[in-house]
Amino acid sequence: MRPWIDEQFGNPSSAHAYGQRARQAEAEAVRLSVGFPTSAQEIQPAAAFLVEAWRRMLR
């Protein structure tokens, strides 16, 4: 998770390179979560919350 906080940040909705890498990572997280009892719609907001929480803690 650390690289996505410090180096590879990006909005998955953006067309630029950082956004595209974030979108790929998001898709991979969703793919890996298939066995978990939750939906993809629940994962993305939770992931965004965790990234922001880590950024605030590391300041």
How are the elements arranged and paired?
Elements: H1 2-6, H2 17-32, H3 40-58
Main sheet summary: none
- Amino- and carboxy-terminal Cα gap: 16 Å
Question: Mean pLDDT, rounded to whole units?
Answer: 76
Low-confidence stretches at least 5 residues in length (pLDDT < 50)?
Answer: none
Order of helices and strands: HHH
List the total number of helices. 3
Structure notes:
The chain has 59 residues and is mostly helical. The protein has helices at residues 2-6, 17-32, 40-58. The protein has one domain (2-58). It contains three helices and no strands.
Highlighted features:
59 residues, mainly alpha, 0% strand, globular
Summarize the structure.
The protein is mainly alpha-helical. It is 68% helix and 0% strand.
